[in-house]
Design a protein that fits this description.
The complex is a heterodimer of chains A (287) and B (379). With 287 residues, chain A is mostly helical. Chain A is built from twelve helices and no strands. Chain A is flat. With 379 residues, chain B is α+β, with helices and mostly antiparallel strands. In chain B, the strands form three sheets. Chain B has a six-stranded mixed beta sheet with strand order 2-1-3-10-4-11. Chain B has 13 helices and eleven strands. Chains A and B meet through helix 1 and helix 11 of A and helix 1 and helix 13 of B.
Chain lengths: 287, 379
């Protein structure tokens, strides 16, 4: 290709990307800029002010909402990370019938609408739910799971939604590891643990961290689950945001909460971009 | 070369796809159709379809189109669209009539006092029969139905339901864990319970005032709510407030609680669909739990204000009010004695005499915020 041709191709490349870039500017960047501007304006006078952020970080209920959100998200991420990594290892490296069955079934929760799933979970775990009735009928025990209106209930439901998703990402990475290198390592005498810590884990750690990032971002601003399962106070920030927005109609304060959630997410998002740009030392570069 | 041409065509095509909707619109002259923006539960859609159908039968000339959004999806659309249109300096909007409540009235009129059409009593002649008015914009909105909150109870467990506020409070304290009300920010049944506790301890003129000075007198009511708190429904070891009006009804149906405040029309329609057991009954207490007024308003930017007022006049006619009562068990906007006797019969269980509404404008939000801070956070 001549220089001219390369240049021309670049121009067409930009032209092709332009429409989606414009859509992103219009539908994503512009609202973000507006929300940020709104969050710095006083609800009554509309003048520049820090009052919304001041309330966000000093109001005792809001502070406990923030703490509550962070605790729920951290536990969700930890539990999802551990379970989905183990599950992925099992799906990718075991060849048993059970593992193949799980490999086929584990994505089903992804296809159930979240509102349906949350109501289903509630009907199983609430104090008069399916678990309680089964225990009462079969064993005569009045078993109360005590999960409704609690952090544990929210985390349980979050796991249900997120384990399939992160398992999908991680097991794809694990399946991408060439079996030949594992076999050659085994041939020269590497033990199972040695293979795991020196080869499998380093080769999948990037996708593992990316999966965690997505789980974090997807849960920090979640609404349906904490709205239906969580208590009324403290609440997760997504619920507090909806309350400010549609019940109290306080657009400025809801903008401030959105910006705060956006910052939390973009911290993780920045991490994701950094991770995905960094070339893995194991990958063979073409250039 | 072929490739570059193809690339160019593709790029242009993609840009057009994105840009086209901006230029679309316009078109040939169409017969006049006015848009009615409604939101709420599905029974709202059903009743409006019937009212509009009846209107079309006797009123040729223009049609009414129902723009319905299920509650929780984008229920703030109409009035927020109007505010956005005003901020953007638009010359007209496609909203001709919209569902309003005091909160929305307050927001729209704060944006601009003349954003809503002043209704003309000569055009909306039936207006004279309407029994209640908005406080925020009395001549820019029209009540077309009322909604009432009652105490719903399980008659198997509670043979003699409480009849007064004092009896109800005594009952709650005597039966710990058997009463629940929902977070007032998530539904009006809990909202009415909270409001009634507050306003029963305030002078009668407060009921129809949005003066911020009343906020100082909420203390006595919140004290009562705080006293009731430890005796309410418990789950996972703590007192819990349910989410949405349906949250308490679900507990009532499951037998977890024996009593809760609930919208009369929700209970009656769910009983008729066997979603609630037959043992669930309604009881009003004295002084009664407050109801709400549902209103319609016409934006000044509407292209067809005259047609909209004509339809509005029909909505508060005896004929249309009869449909509202029969189909959704609504509280009529006109004196029930004007309605057919068979329809009035349907309201008999609802003790219309004691019906009272609360129209406190933006104070409603103040109450919800204070409830979240003072009551929801109690241990």
């Amino acid at each position: 290709m001549t220089d001219k041709q390369i240049k021309r191709q670049k121009v067409y490349g930009v032209l092709m990307a332009l429409p989606s870039f414009l859509v992103i500017c219009l539908m994503v960047l512009f609202p973000i800029v507006r929300a940020v501007a709104l969050s710095f304006s006083d609800p009554t006078t509309h003048a520049f002010s820090l009052i919304n952020y001041q309330e966000l970080f000093t109001d005792s209920l809001m502070v406990s909402n923030i703490q509550y959100t962070i605790v729920v998200v951290i536990f969700t991420v930890l539990i999802v990370a551990i379970i989905s990594y183990i599950l992925s290892l099992y799906i990718a490296f075991s060849d048993s019938a059970v593992s193949r069955l799980i490999g086929k079934l584990y994505l089903i929760p992804r296809f159930i609408p979240s509102i349906v799933a949350v109501y289903a979970i509630m009907n199983v775990v609430k104090d008069t739910g399916a678990l309680n009735r089964i225990a009462l009928e079969v064993f005569g025990i009045d078993f109360k799971p005590g999960l409704m209106f609690t952090k544990q209930g929210i985390i349980l439901s979050n796991c249900w939604f997120n384990i399939p998703f992160s398992t999908m990402l991680i097991s794809a990475a694990l399946q991408g590891i060439p079996r030949s290198i594992i076999e050659s390592a085994r041939d020269v005498g590497a033990g199972k643990l040695r293979v795991f810590f020196s080869m499998i884990f380093p080769l999948s750690v990037n996708d593992f961290l990316i999966a965690i990032t997505f789980v974090f971002m997807g849960n920090v601003a979640s609404f349906t689950t904490p709205y239906l399962i969580g208590a009324r106070a403290p609440m997760m920030l997504g619920v507090a945001l909806q309350k400010e927005f549609s019940a109290y109609l306080n657009m400025e304060k809801s903008a401030a909460i959105s910006v705060f959630l956006f910052l939390l997410s973009s911290l993780m998002g920045g991490f994701y971009i950094y991770k995905s740009l960094k070339t893995n030392k194991w990958e063979v570069s073409e250039r | 070369m072929k490739k570059t041409v193809l690339c160019m065509i593709l790029a242009v095509a993609m840009t057009m796809v994105v840009a086209l909707p901006v230029f679309a619109g316009g078109g040939a002259e169409k017969p006049v159709a006015i848009n009615l923006y409604e939101d709420g539960s599905d029974n709202v859609r059903i009743v409006w379809e019937q009212v509009i159908e009846a209107f079309h039968k006797t009123n040729p000339g223009f049609t009414v189109q129902l723009q319905y959004a299920a509650s929780g999806t984008n229920s703030q659309n109409a009035y927020q669209k109007l505010i956005a249109a005003h901020q953007a300096g638009q010359k007209d909007v496609d909203i001709d009539l919209m569902e309003m409540d005091e909160n929305r009235m307050g927001l729209v009129l704060k944006e601009g006092k003349d954003l809503l059409v002043k209704l003309d009593p000569a055009k909306v002649t039936n207006m004279a029969n309407v029994t209640a008015k908005s406080v925020v914009g009395p001549d820019q909105s029209l009540m077309y139905r009322g909604t009432a909150v009652f105490i719903a109870y399980n008659a198997d467990k509670v043979p003699n339901p409480p009849k007064t506020e004092a009896e109800l409070q005594a009952w709650i304290k005597a039966n710990p864990g058997k009463f629940a009300y929902n977070d007032p920010a998530t539904g009006g049944a809990g909202g009415s319970f909270v409001n009634t506790a507050l306003y029963n301890r305030m002078p009668p003129e407060a009921f129809t005032s949005d003066d911020p000075k009343w906020a100082k007198e909420f203390d006595a009511g919140f004290k009562v709510l705080a006293e009731l708190h430890p005796f309410l429904y418990k789950a996972s070891g703590k007192v819990q407030y349910t989410v949405k009006n349906q949250g308490s009804l679900d507990l009532l149906a499951a037998g977890s609680i024996w009593m809760c405040p609930a919208w009369a029309d929700m209970v009656l329609s769910q009983k008729s669909q066997n979603l609630l057991p037959a043992s669930i009954r309604l009881q009003q207490i004295d002084p009664s739990l407050t109801g709400n007024i549902a209103m319609l308003a016409i934006p000044s930017l509407s292209k067809y204000p005259n047609q909209a007022q004509k339809f509005l006049n029909y909505v508060v006619s005896v004929e249309a009010q009869d449909i509202f009562v029969r189909v959704m068990k609504a509280i009529p906007a006109v004196d029930p004695s004007k309605l057919p006797p068979a329809t009035v019969e349907m309201l008999a269980g609802l003790q219309m005499k004691t019906y009272r509404t609360l129209t406190n404008g933006n104070l409603g939000t103040v109450i919800q915020q204070r409830w979240t801070k003072d009551i929801a956070t109690l241990p």
